[in-house]
Write a structure and sequence with these properties.
35% of the residues lie in helices and 25% in strands. The protein is elongated. The chain has nine helices and 16 strands. The chain folds into two domains: 281 residues, Zn peptidases (Aminopeptidase, 3-Layer(aba) Sandwich), CATH 3.40.630.10; 114 residues, Alpha-Beta Plaits (2-Layer Sandwich). A hairpin with a 6-residue loop joins strand 1 and strand 2. The mean pLDDT is 96. The strands form four sheets. It has an eight-stranded mixed β-sheet with strand order 1-2-4-3-5-16-6-15, sandwiched between helices. The protein binds zinc ion. Zinc ion (ZN) binds next to loops. Keywords: Hydrolase, Manganese, Metal-binding.
Amino acid sequence: MPFLAESQSLLPRLVALRRELHADPEVGLDLPNTQKRILEALEGLDLEITLGENCSSVTAVLRGGEPGPAVLLRGDMDALPVAELTDLEYASKNGSMHACGHDLHVAGLVGAAHLLAAQQQDLAGSVIFMFQPGEEGWHGAETMIAEGVLDAAGERPVAAYGIHVRPGPLGVFRTKPGTLMAGANELRITVTGSGGHSSQPQAALDPVPAVAEMVTALQNMATRRFSVFDPIVLTVTQLEAGEAINVIPDTAKLGASVRTLSEESLNRVIMETKALAEGIASAHGLRAEVDFNVLYPVTVNDAARTDEALRELRELFGMDRVIQSRDPLMGSEDFSLVLEQVPGTFLFLGATPPEVDPATADWNHSPRVLFDDSVLADQAAALAQLAYNRLTEDLGAEQEL
Ligand SMILES: [Zn+2]
């Protein structure tokens, strides 16, 4: 099915939708304007639509002309609390920004829905379009899974796909089988001693030096206790202690972001951080409370589905535009929760405008990041093609017999 030509003719509508979304970004799980625009953009298509109860998600199911398996396509919808610093004519002025390109993800998924709906009769099975709010740390995928998105077609999908834009040469896809992105975790340590006068530390139990010790000890732990072939990234981002300069506080706190690439390293880092914090605290006569929160698991691409996706996208876009990446990214994604239950593939799509050097382009989450919306045609075509192939391959096999 030649989705590329069809997709090019949809492009002006998708670009217009993306720019409307970009100018009116919404943060978190409740994105009423975004949801309304999605519903308008899907109007006229033969879709079964369910709206989220605890978030403003849109789940749309397209039933093909014949029975068959289900495939899930996902686009996330939310923006970030970042004040936009681009000079785009459609730049946001409300203090939030689509700095992670989720405005493109929505428009690309709308495009895929139009492309596949036009082939409805050819499809043996169903496509679930998962428009997801709250990806940026709001547990949006978890909420949608709890509300039944994976069973929206009546049976578990046999494949799931999502595409994320990022800086890189325009229109170049990248992914890899296996671990693609890190798991995201939050570490919080509270050290409790006994406060007092800053001139009399011997009469108090000062938690501040212990927390300072933990900052460097955690870095040593990351490099000394973990294999270089299964590394972690641990970044202390929050330190909190005391109000008055002449008072030793009762407590001091530390917060860190921890990225892991495997179940083994996750289990190990939970154990090691607890032992380390409690050990340092007790050496100084203090108490440490360690709270380790697993935010999102590691994003793992199914090996067979991903080899297949690489091959199929190369047929569509050519070898040069579909690259198998060598290393995972230490960023995280809650599509990982879908991929824990459905074999599938998450892909990156380079979207740096042609006038910007991809090597020095601002990254996702920067107030200056730029994504070129001409990639929307490729994004929509790629999603549609992968779903189409899964829902027609058995038909092809039967015909061959
Ligand atoms: Zn994102």
